[in-house]
Design brief:
Layout: E1 3-14, E2 17-28, E3 32-36, H1 43-50, E4 58-63, E5 66-67, H2 73-77, E6 80-83, H3 94-104, H4 109-122, H5 138-150, E7 156-160, H6 168-185, E8 188-193, H7 196-202, E9 205-210, E10 213-218
Parallel strand pairs: 3-8, 3-9, 6-7, 7-8
Antiparallel strand pairs: 1-2, 1-4, 4-5, 9-10
Helix pairs in contact: 3-4, 3-5, 4-5
């Protein structure tokens, strides 16, 4: 069994209205699944369910062969990282922002220094480590946000339209860098976007959600 996530018969409701239904979906270990669809289709809702921030009305969700609902909350959250549309950085240096999650986990200083060094370099922000987060451009801030997610070494990386707030040239470069990184790193990633071209660039496979329903899953060519 090489799937990290399996979803069956999932239904999410809000205010008594169906907002997302997924009949069946598997996410393989090490793959990047891009989820594409128009605004309001239910893409982000799926990420929030996988992050255990929304409870489904019904459905079976398994992570590593175990039901997500049976996993301890803290233990499960430590297996995932979430990158939002806005970087949500704290008012401190870039270095401290990247190291924040490791600090909460009690990682020792030497290991923290090594990991922050590795991922700040991978995301191209190693020259900015001493800078305050408030002095960063939008693209730089999102790179720091990505480094902060990768530094935790998550089994599952959830990304919700992470480049929608940056200008087109910055966005193109960020996408290129992220695609290269994911193809080398083989980290299981779910990447949400409303841009089909972006989905095809980043995803090994693409899932299409329209009007709250998973319609199709396949390779970008399919």
């Amino acid at each position: 069994m090489n799937e990290l996530i399996s979803i069956r018969d999932l239904l999410i409701q809000r205010n008594g209205r169906d907002v997302l239904s997924v009949n069946s979906l598997e996410v393989q270990r090490g793959e990047t699944l891009a989820i594409v669809g128009p605004n309001g289709a239910g893409k982000s809702t799926l990420l929030l369910v996988l992050a255990r921030l929304i409870k489904p009305m019904r459905g079976q969700l398994t992570f590593n062969g175990s039901s997500i609902s049976k996993l301890d909350d803290l233990e499960y959250r430590r297996k995932i990282s979430f990158v939002f549309q806005d970087p949500l950085l704290m008012d401190m240096t870039v270095e401290k922002n990247i190291a924040l999650g490791l600090k909460f986990r009690g990682t020792d200083k030497e290991e923290t220094r090594k990991r922050v060094g590795r991922w700040s370099q991978a995301m191209g922000v190693d020259s900015l480590l001493g800078r305050q987060a408030s002095q960063l451009s939008g693209g730089e801030a999102q790179r720091v946000s990505l480094a902060r997610a990768f530094v935790l070494d998550p089994e599952l990386l959830l990304m919700d339209e992470p480049f929608s707030a940056v200008d087109p040239p910055t966005r193109a470069q960020l996408l290129k860098d992220l695609s290269n990184l994911l193809s080398q790193d083989h980290r299981t990633t779910i990447f949400v976007t409303h841009n089909l071209k972006e989905a095809a660039q980043v995803g090994d496979r693409v899932a299409v959600i329209i009007n709250g329903e998973l319609k199709q899953v396949g390779t970008p060519e399919q």
